[in-house]
Design brief:
This protein is an alpha/beta fold and about 375 residues long. The protein has 2 domains: about 280 residues, no CATH class; about 55 residues. Helix content is about 50%, strand content about 15%. Helix 1 runs antiparallel to helix 10 and helix 12 crosses helix 13.
Length: about 375
């Protein structure tokens, strides 16, 4: 698992950030989903689609973050399974990827209901699966002391007429600085020539739910209540240094940023903000200023080193030319023929024939 995957998963697992993302996507930022009503689930989706009695091959996929939300409606508990898929780069088959995750979750619910019925049916005294009873409230409504004999169709499928599924919503969270130009629905993946609505009407579409900071306007970002807003702001303006600097200087929330959020910024934007110490909070303004001071010092040091090297090279060249001049003048005083002098220059100073002739002309 890469650095980007690790830090974004850790960040989005935070209940407050997770709830913030879904509240923006589903409820325009209203705090309908409360962090304390979110409960973690195993993020590995494993199912044998309609694999009753061992038929078929198991399919396993690893989600980034998966939780179930227990909401209250009319004094009754209502459950929804919420999943997040982080993307640090564009994913051009995202509708299929998300659809598979959701389908596996529904298949797993069907399998769990069938398994529970088989287990409970051994003593002939209970009706409904534990999961169905706990999450949907439907199958558990019958008395557990009343034996229920399933119909032939229910017995064969393993899923009873009164069984219910728990809704699954997957949210794609993009951490890429560029706008999302990848397909957002299954129909987008078909060839453009396929425009016959009579055909498409028989092909169920699947649309992804997407949060992409590069495509969000200021008022949308303002609806976020947690560090997710700060992270999205930094990503959105990461390629406009002047605008980003103004935002950081004028937004007090950058002064007390959670360390996990700062790590996400570094990993997804390539920023090299120093996260010194082990504190839970980071002052981004101070960290960026320190980073720039270090960059300036490193640049100054590098410039000085390059200047010294260039000076050395210049001195070497000057010394070499002075040696050639003295050599030529010494032998010219002895009236050494030009051809022999040129040969000596080539031998002792590693000059080409042309360079030797030019040097003789220059210093004679």
């Amino acid at each position: 698992m890469g650095k980007k995957d690790t830090v974004t998963k850790e960040f989005m697992r935070r209940p407050d950030v997770f709830a913030d993302a879904f509240n923006l996507a589903l409820f325009e930022g209203s705090p309908v989903i409360q962090p304390e009503r979110l409960h973690p689930l195993d993020s590995v989706e494993t199912a044998v689609p309609y694999g009753e009695k061992g038929a078929g091959l198991p399919v396993q996929k690893q989600r980034d973050v998966l939780k179930y939300w227990s909401a209250m409606e009319d004094d009754s508990a209502v459950y929804v399974i919420l999943g997040i898929e982080n993307q640090s780069a564009l994913q051009y088959a995202m509708p299929v990827k998300a659809m598979v995750y959701d389908a596996l979750q529904y298949a797993a619910q069907v399998e769990e209901a069938a398994r529970s019925h088989r287990e409970k049916g051994k003593d002939g005294t209970a009706y409904g699966s534990d999961e169905t009873a706990s999450l949907s409230g439907e199958a558990g409504s019958r008395s557990r002391e009343t034996a229920y004999v399933p119909t032939g169709a229910e017995y064969l499928s393993g899923f009873y007429k009164t069984d219910r599924l728990v809704p699954v919503i997957t949210l794609v969270v993009s951490f890429a600085p560029q706008e999302w130009d990848a397909p957002t629905s299954l129909h987008d993946l078909f060839l453009p020539a396929l425009r016959d609505t009579r055909i498409l009407s028989f092909v169920p579409d699947y649309r992804i739910n997407l949060l992409s900071p590069a495509s969000m306007q200021g008022d949308e970002l303002e609806r976020l209540k947690t560090d997710l807003r700060t992270v999205f702001l930094f990503i959105r303006y990461s390629q406009d240094r002047e605008q980003l600097q103004r935002i950081i200087e004028n937004d007090s929330r950058f002064h007390m940023l959670d360390r996990t959020a700062a790590e996400v910024i570094n990993a997804t934007t390539g920023a090299k903000i120093a996260l010194n110490g082990k504190g839970a909070k980071v002052d981004m303004c101070k960290a960026i200023q320190e980073m720039r001071e270090i960059e300036f010092a490193q640049g100054h040091s590098l410039g000085m080193e390059q200047g010294v090297q260039e000076g050395r090279q210049q001195g070497i060249q000057q010394g070499l030319q002075e040696g050639i001049r003295a050599f030529i003048q010494n032998y010219r005083e002895e009236n050494l023929p030009m051809e022999r002098l040129a040969a000596k220059l080539q031998k002792f100073f590693s000059l080409s024939e042309e360079e030797a002739k030019l040097s003789i002309e220059k210093y004679s």
